[in-house]
Amino acid sequence: MRLSIDDFVLQLRAFPASAFDQTEDIRAFLQTTPVDEASLAPYLTWNRQHYTRNLIDKTELYELIAICWEVGQASSVHNHRDQNCWMAAPVGKLVVENFRLGFQDIEAGQCLLEASNRVELTAENPCAVDPQEPVHRVLNPREANQRAVSLHVYSRPFDTCVVYSPEQGTCGEIQLHYNTAFGKAVPST
């Protein structure tokens, strides 16, 4: 049985702070507590040019975001500022591509990455970002031929991250933003 997003949030808020310092408890919670797709409707927005980031809940311990992916959309290769991240896809099938970071020099804008592994992300197969190899990208493969929604739980909210170009060997810091917060549009800056 799938839980409404409101009930999911209530259960997520009940976790102790220690659950957000390691990866297994929240990953297991995502696996045993899939979210009902219909209950996500107030938080879903779509954009043909770029995936959207929609804030559902935020505390000092975590933020819960629904990301909406049109067919073929992908994130940049990025990190999570040394914070944990968990993902599930209540709608569709996504692919998480992980990378091994050889080195990075943010000041010089240079890095060296090598592809590590790929994980299929579904409601039944959530994942936790490996703290030892936290650099990755998420994509909605064209061959899936359907929109997808992923739920992301980020421990200790952050508003910047490092993005990487494995092909160019470059990296840099970017500011993150929400398209919507608590079901309401966030003005573009």
Structure report:
The protein has 189 residues and is mainly beta. The chain has a single domain (5-185), classed as Jelly Rolls, CATH 2.60.120.10. The chain is 10% helix and 42% strand. The protein has 2 helices and 13 strands. The protein has helices at 5-13, 24-32; strands at residues 52-58, 62-69, 77-78, 85-91, 94-105, 110-121, 127-128, 135-139, 148-155, 160-165, 170-175, 180-181, 184-185. It has a 7-stranded mixed beta sheet with strand order 7-4-9-2-1-12-13, with helices on one face. A 3-stranded antiparallel beta sheet has the order 3-10-11, with no helix packed on it. Strand 12 and strand 13 form a beta hairpin. The protein is globular and about 45 Å long. The mean pLDDT is 94.
